[in-house]
Design brief:
It contains 25 helices and 15 strands. The protein is mainly α and about 750 residues long. The strands form seven sheets. A three-stranded antiparallel sheet has the order 5-2-6, covered by helices on one side. A two-stranded parallel ribbon has the order 1-14. Helix 12 packs antiparallel against helix 13 and helix 14 packs antiparallel against helix 15. The chain is elongated, with a radius of gyration of 33 Å. The two termini are about 65 Å apart. It is a multi-pass membrane protein. Keywords: Antiport, Calcium, Calcium transport, Ion transport, Membrane, Phosphoprotein, Transmembrane, Transmembrane helix, Transport. It is found in: Endomembrane system. One of its GO terms (biological process) is intracellular calcium ion homeostasis.
Length: about 750
Amino acid sequence: MATDVEPGRRRRCCAQDTPDAPKVPDSHGDSDGARRGSLCDRHCAAINNVQGDLGDLGCHLHRPRVPPATSTPSCCQQHSEEVCESCVVKTTLTAENAVEANKLSNNYKFGFKKWKSHVTARPWEDRSEIVKELYSDLNIVRGSGGSTLTCGNVLYLLLFGWWLSLLYVLVAAVMFITIMGAPYGRLCWDLAGYFLWPFGKVIQKVEVPKSHQACEAGVGESSALLGGPTPLRWRPRCWVGTGYWRRASTAVWLCLGCPLLALAHGLVCVTAWLLIVLIPVAKLSARATSRVLPLPPERVLIRRLRMTEVPLEGEVILCCYRAANPYYYKYAVDGINVFAVNLLPLVLVTLVLGYVDSPNHLTGSAVKFTLALLSIMPLSYYIGMAIASISAQSNFAVGAVVNATFGSITELTFYITALIKGSREGNRCYAEVVKSALTGTLVGCVLFVPGLCMVIGGIRHQEQRFNSRSAGVSSALLFLSVGGVFAPTLFSKVYGKLVCGECHNVTQNPLGHYLCHNCHFDLMDNNGTLYYSHVQPLVYTVSILLPAAYLIGLFFTLKTHTHIYDIHISDCHMPGHHHSAMVHWSRWRALVILLLSTLCMSACADLATEHISPILTNSTISQYFIGVTVLAMVPELPEIVNGIQFALQNNLSLSIEIGNCIAVQVCMLQIPILVLFTIFYPTNFTLVFSDLHVYASMFSVVLMNYIFMDGKCDYFQGTVLVMVYFILLAVYFFAPSPSGC
């Protein structure tokens, strides 16, 4: 694997020569120089060891080991000590195919959505044994791997086993009463014992015996698995008669027994799937419904496993050892994480309940608002997955357009629907809530997201390093954007007229001290001359300059100074073992999902704003707090999860970039779009924030830049960021409601 270096660019010391490159003997006999070069190389390797999104890919950084006698010249022998100490950013990443390589490359591009999950199917041989077990069918006999008396198995017995077994006993009794269903009654009796405790037992599909004697021929046979004679109730059953008797027995079973048991297994399957850790129980029930219940009784054989590694005769249908597996949080269906799959029906429930039950006969506004807000989480996930899939399968131009168009669609949808509702009702409170949500997103992505990633990543890794140069670009844009966004606010503080709602003389002296409430700077004095002649033109100017600065930042990082990230993507498989890209979502499928998710997002945002009014008016909690917490951070939960996953893989650079990019987009894209929207659809939204928003945002940005100054961090620094965030939340919690609410 060769790492290409552009002509004219100074090659960094950590960019190791490739295995195919000719080896140059060391001509420096100076022991001092050798020691110095060796120390420098170790320093560079230690610095660069933290880069790369490698854990989930099963790949590695390519650093060939060269014997000392034939090693290439060290970086200190080629460059100065100063250059060696700055070799922090060279990273070689590996990917299974070109699509994954494109996705990894997009993760390091400024303005592109950072996505941890795979957009293609991973080769089965590259997966760990833990992950392989998650996707395996319950038909593999591994033998007893230990005691089956585990907490998960006991939980199955308490939640499902006892009543499912009792139901089988009742169905067996009904089958015996009908006489014609007696063969199925015996089957249900045996299955009652199996589903009471299915662990360490196996259900087989056996051949139909040709005669009654063929069934009886097995009496007294021994089995290595059973350790003795086969118990009678576990032997294949024979039909007593044929023709009419067989058809009548099957009809009784299909009418009285099978539907009830299938319904019970369906309930178990859905409940266990929603609990996630009990997905093996869901597989057990689904497989029993589809493979066991349709079989005639004489083809079902239930056996207990007592010895290991003994092959079984006949097809194994069910063989379960554990009811629970804590690693099922990694499980994915067609590339979609199981949590997003489980939350998808919530979107349907929210839409049906919200638009069908408009008069709130079934549920109240609080329930509908909560459901609408929770529905935003899976929709945000699907939008992110669709954007990552389209970008990974397209060229740079298409990826940039998709990320710029739909990257902030989740937040903008909610903000615009809230402003429209506030304008229709003449309620200024909605505009204040939107400002609080904007500030909450900015503060949360600057403090909480990187701080939480530092804490969780620091638990596994003692010290984490990141690309300080790329973080510096985002920090500079943050300083610029915060200054631009709050410039109209500072202007109004300087030139606006302070107006108070009510004032009380606390000293009973006309010249004494006055205590005033609900004070604000009035920009509409003298028929709004200050606002329309000075503040509004400043707002429009800032709204033009901020997107222009964002475009310059994109051009700087993606075109002229791409070496800041210095990422090289290579194939991690040996020659002859290349894997074709099997994408989870094609471009057209991802586009359809993206549009549908955006449409559903708009509907959920409309429901959330429709039912937030009673919460704002009747709640004792400050509207500031509701805006900066619930409305700001819930849509960002998928991004927070991505950041945590990157931090656990010792890739803190992307964790920090996730928060920085969202914060930059809030100031440089979302706020200018809202200002542009107010031009065509007049609302109560003005780019003048309260003092609390200004101080919280500026302090957060300054603190973040101080923490990120040295390019390394640990869990203590992350704890500082998280604690400061919670202190600001406490300030918002105890703050009085904004004027107009």
